[in-house]
Please model this.
Amino acid sequence: MDSIVVSPPVASRHSQPALDVPPEVTIGQLQRHVLVARRKVRAGQYLYRSGQPFHALYLVHAGFLKTCELSDDGREQVTGFRMRGDLLGVESIGLAHHTCDAVALEDSEIWELPYPPVLAALRHIPELQERLTAALAEEIRRDRSWMLTIGTLPAEQRVAAFLLDIAGRHARLGFSARHFILRMGRADIASFLALKHETVSRALSHLERIAYISVLRREVKLLDVPKLRELAGMPCTVQ
Amino acid sequence: MDSIVVSPPVASRHSQPALDVPPEVTIGQLQRHVLVARRKVRAGQYLYRSGQPFHALYLVHAGFLKTCELSDDGREQVTGFRMRGDLLGVESIGLAHHTCDAVALEDSEIWELPYPPVLAALRHIPELQERLTAALAEEIRRDRSWMLTIGTLPAEQRVAAFLLDIAGRHARLGFSARHFILRMGRADIASFLALKHETVSRALSHLERIAYISVLRREVKLLDVPKLRELAGMPCTVQ
DNA sequence: CGGATCTTTGAGCGGGGTCAAATTAGGTGG
DNA sequence: CCACCTAATTTGACCCCGCTCAAAGATCCG
Model:
């Protein structure tokens, strides 16, 4: 959900057609209508856990988290990685309790948006409601896009797609798209891509051997983005 | 999105807490605020295609459809099967164009809900907006649940989970959960479960050999639901 | 310095994919 | 209604990608 970024206050025109508002004009506005609690979460700690009461949405202000789906019989699946500007907890809207875990992968700062006030703000500001709906729709598209990747690409190509996704999200936050530090371990990448951690490790090693990337533990450099894009099944060289 | 069912008109209490409204009190209400066009789609035809302008949501009134994600380089992934009561097109909210295909698997009747009127209705009836938001959240949970299944279960267990899902949705519509006709081919099941059609075929044959089901082409009977549930990683015998 | 965790790499195996063929169902036009 | 054609399904044989098991670094922590 990386289109929702915390933006500096923007003149809000409620009369202007909501769907044409650029994604930057978004949930960040909630801070002006809802009392936002700032919350620190240390690496390894849970922001929320499956089964806990749902009472707030969370906006990542700084740091890095993963969300995990878990089953009754103990299986676990990483469903996404969340960074600055991403909204967490939306999957629990309409429920009394959370249905997945959110775990900090590094020390993070989270803006907690208590849900009843959020609901009230949404009622008073239709544009905000529409932005939230659009954000949920985008989350669905993102999940489906990963279903496509996982359902149709072999291991190495999934890893390439993953690296490009992280790179793109870094770029949108103003960081380098070519050089970054992974905040998660091989096992988390593997779970997310429906692989095993050894396979991820081998794929990264191989991508390095063919000079598409350079990788040393968690430090990654993308050396040949067009080739990576081609590998990941994203033929367009532009964008 | 099977929690959204077309319900008989229910007295709407805008003052009552929206989150406690049972799922049956839902989007069906839109028909009283939006001019609904009834649309027939024959088996094999598209309800909408990726790239077409987005101008409506669609409620399945009768029939059966699949949604497909597709990539620039021609890969294709079935992302879901939709039946009576399911809402389609929500993934395109906030966009000018659809990003996936919806294809009828049998002759279907669809209620078309033009989006601008829907938007207007949502603005006037906060409860309806909240139901739509909750429906999107549920769609996210459904997708993530399948990610867990596909990411952590081997082929035969995925097929078991699939059969139980179809059975449960049939039951919610008042049909038999133990005996049903699949509306999709092996290839569509396979794509949805990130398998090959031969693997699905073999899994079904094996489930029949161990007497968990009986299957003849598209006719399926569930002979041992508890065992199937255990296989699919859903240990609770109740519900 | 010592222990826990993460990562890499190797060796070997097996589940699921690939390729192929047989069978059956369904649709269509004569 | 039947003959034919096309598409769907099943099953077999074989193979390979990714998993399993194992061990050896590397890094980080106390």
Observations:
- Chain A touches chain B through 51 residues (CB under 8 Å).
- The beta strands of chain A are 37-41, 46-48, 56-70, 76-83, 87-88, 101-114, 179-181, 213-216, 219-222.
